[in-house]
Write a structure and sequence with these properties.
The relative contact order is 0.16. With 685 residues, this protein is of the alpha/beta class. Helix 12 (281-308) links the parallel strand 1 and strand 2. It has helices at 10-24, 61-72, 89-96, 128-131, 149-155, 159-164, 179-183, 188-201, 204-219, 223-238, 244-256, 281-308, 326-333, 336-346, 356-363, 376-383, 393-399, 422-445, 459-473, 494-508, 522-532, 542-566, 580-592, 612-620, 634-650, 652-671; strands spanning 260-265, 315-318, 353-354, 391-392, 448-451, 483-488, 513-517, 572-576, 602-607, 625-631. The protein is globular. The strands form two sheets. The protein has an eight-stranded parallel β-barrel with strand order 1-2-5-6-7-8-9-10, surrounded by seven helices. Helix content is 49%, strand content 7%.
């Protein structure tokens, strides 16, 4: 297969190389030469201005920006992001007919509120009592619906779904991974490195001790040594690099083999491990610090779109935690689970809907600002879109989301720890504006966007931003630039959330696009749940996660097939998994449902450096396949690398098999033996 990089002459590439390196880090959506950035208009306001940042061109823009902030300007205005929210058509119509909903102004919120957050990883320094939260009121991040038949009804799917949870048939398999297709690309030296990486991943004790070992080396001022080892092993295999030239080169090499790329700036943000409390000017300075850091992340995402656009049909990943202060995301996400629990409790007849009385007496009081609602009937009318006197969970999500300014007082704390601060709404606006600017940049460059799933205590707001972006950009038919949201199927509520979001897309008129993964934060989530005393959001067994994953895939495949038969634009499914049984089931369903994959309504994906035998076999069969291509400085991607090692150690059998295949290839080359031919996945799909 010819390389996409060959479409440009090598001479021109050499002439432009220096200029590209110089400008890449400064790539913004607007320059004087290019003219003003295209922007979505803001209803009732002005157009979102272009983002103009002045950041150093160091290898780590985040570190450089924060360093400069600390040295020169502890406070900074955020005018560029302080734009009004744009209401959807449905919300605007509701708002026009709404009466005064609230009885009083927002509750007390100090000008410089204390910043206190509980720790993670089981090191909570602030107790639930100090936060004013009970275990049920805390955001439990998706405890399973408690036996509600309504939820079970929504989870019921077509016969194809039931078939998906059964074992793969004993007939000829469509997927036959061949390690030689991937190993042929590597030198003997690289194969030896890969073998050592797999051997290390196969040691559960070593992987568990890795974070402590790294901290010990840091304490002994030997980080240079541990970093050198990690850089030449895990980083070299699981990441594309730090500089644009090597990153784009890695993407083009994959493209030559028929594999697309999902470019991923792998720096992550989380709540601090230790609680901190600050007030007055210190709190405002910390807020300014967080916004400057988010600006720098947005700038790096612009650079990522620039790099991804150099390889046709690429994706770029987007982490919402990089676009806002994690504490803001945490506070805004906090009311989601109590609201969901209240809705299920109010639904006495388990039909998935509540009436006005149930809404007023049970649902509204679950919100931090529910007590300040002066007109519950007016609020209910805003939620009840069709005026039938009944509202379901999707109605509530659509009407009471943060993108509806009329609903925001419901999220506002009355001075306790439960709920948002007034300043959080301003930071929410900036976060959405950053996300919108990044996705707009991607649309103009022909790059598709995948919004990553992250920790459950941030996920409600991550989902919210993803849905807002999908509503704005997933229109105009199958050729339109798409925004994909990610669903972690190890969560007990994953299938229900995916079903609800699909329904919301139908009601609001945009194309639903989902990336399904099993999940990457299992140990952290279970540890945090045990530490803080709430139900774990993770499925109790691996088999339950497998079953939920296969059911979700089958449900969307059935809808894709139905849409194709009816000549409609289908939803889009990205099957991101290293589990060959799940891949085999999807391939069989693609064949049995006669789904046309030429326009990529269904795609597959694996991480760079993992399950290469499967990836290359799918590419050989002309099935849409992509690799997640992480990049960044070593410090920025270290959490990602630790998770990859943990994920590999959790599937010891598979990692031992891959290590054995690598060693067999090394021995074959050393002994000069020829390789036996292997069959690959069928190309009949």
């Amino acid at each position: 297969m010819p390389s996409d990089g060959q479409t440009q002459s090598s001479g021109r590439a050499r002439d432009e190389k220096a200029e590209t390196r110089k400008k890449a880090r400064l790539a913004l959506p607007t320059t004087e030469k290019e003219g003003p950035q295209k922007s979505h208009s803001v209803e009732g306001g002005t157009k979102n201005p272009s983002i103009a940042l002045s950041m150093p061109t160091s290898a780590s823009p985040v570190v450089a920006a924060v360093t400069r902030l600390n040295a020169t300007q502890p406070l900074r205005p955020f005018v560029a992001y302080a734009q009004p929210s744009r209401l959807s058509f449905i919300q605007a119509r509701r708002a026009a007919s709404s009466a005064a909903l609230y009885s009083r102004a927002a509750g007390p919120s100090p000008a410089h509120p204390p910043r206190a957050v509980s720790g993670v990883h089981g090191k909570a320094a602030v107790s639930l009592a100090a936060r004013g939260l009970s275990a049920s009121a805390l955001t439990r991040a998706a405890a399973a619906p408690r036996g509600a038949p309504a939820a079970a009804a929504k989870d019921s799917v077509a016969p194809a779904v039931a078939e998906a949870t059964s074992s793969v048939g004993s007939g000829e398999r469509l997927l036959q991974p061949d390690a030689s297709l991937a190993l042929d690309q590597q030198s003997v030296g690289k194969l030896l490195t890969v073998w050592m990486v797999y051997q290390a991943c196969g040691s559960t004790k070593l992987v568990q001790m890795a974070p402590k070992i790294l901290k010990l080396f840091e304490k002994l001022r030997l980080s240079w040594l541990s970093n050198a080892v990690v850089r030449r092993t895990f980083f070299a295999w699981f990441c594309a690099g730090e500089k644009e030239r090597e990153i784009v080169h890695a993407m083009r090499r994959l493209k030559e083999s028929g594999i697309g790329s999902i470019l991923d700036f792998s720096a992550e943000a989380d709540l601090p491990e230790d609680a901190t409390t600050a007030g007055g000017d210190l709190a405002e300075a910390a807020r300014a610090h967080a916004n400057v850091k988010a600006d720098a992340f947005a700038k790096e995402y612009f650079h990522g779109m620039h790099m991804a656009s150099q390889v046709p049909h690429a994706f770029a990943a987007l982490k919402i935690t990089g676009l806002a202060d994690p504490e803001v995301l945490y506070r805004l996400s906090m009311p989601h689970q109590p609201l969901r629990d209240a809705f299920l409790a109010a639904d006495h007849d388990n039909d998935g809907r509540v009436d006005y009385t149930q809404f007023k007496d049970t649902v509204l009081p679950a919100m931090p600002g529910g007590a300040r609602v002066a007109s519950p009937s007016g609020m209910f009318s805003m939620v009840d879109a069709n005026g039938d006197g009944q509202v379901d969970w999707v109605d509530i999500q659509m009407a009471l989301g943060m993108d509806n300014p009329l609903a925001r007082p419901l999220y506002l704390s009355d001075g306790g720890a439960y709920g948002a601060l007034e300043s959080d709404f301003e930071d929410y606006e900036r976060m959405v504006a950053r996300a919108r600017a990044v996705v707009q940049q991607a649309a103009e460059k022909g790059v598709r966007v995948m919004i990553d799933a992250e920790h459950t205590y941030f996920q409600p707001m991550i989902d919210h931003v993803a849905l807002v972006m999908q509503r704005e950009f997933n229109t105009g038919g199958s050729s339109q630039t798409l925004v994909y949201n990610t669903y972690q199927m190890y969560r007990t509520d994953a299938l229900q959330r995916m079903t609800d979001d699909y329904e919301r897309g139908v009601r609001e008129g945009w194309r639903f696009a989902a990336k399904m993964v099993r999940g990457a934060y299992m140990e952290l989530e279970r540890g945090r749940a045990a530490s803080l005393g709430y139900a774990s959001p993770i499925n109790p067994t691996l088999e339950a996660t497998h079953a939920l994953y296969d059911r979700g895939a089958a449900q969307l495949l059935d809808r894709i097939a139905t849409a194709q038969r009816e000549g409609a634009v289908p939803p889009a499914l990205f099957v991101a998994t290293h589990n060959n049984e799940s891949i085999e089931r999807v391939l069989q369903q693609l064949q049995s449902l006669q789904i046309d994959t030429s326009a990529e309504p269904v795609m597959f994906g694996q991480l760079l450096g993992m399950q290469d035998a499967t990836s290359y076999a799918l590419a050989k069969a002309n099935i849409p396949i992509y690799k997640y291509v992480p990049y960044g400085t070593l410090d920025e991607v270290m959490p990602y690398l630790i998770r990859r090692a943990q994920e590999n150690s959790a599937v010891a059998g598979a990692i031992r098999s891959e290590a054995a295949q690598v060693m067999a290839e090394i021995r074959r080359r050393m002994l000069g033996r020829t390789r036996r031919a292997h069959s690959v996945a069928t190309s009949s799909l």
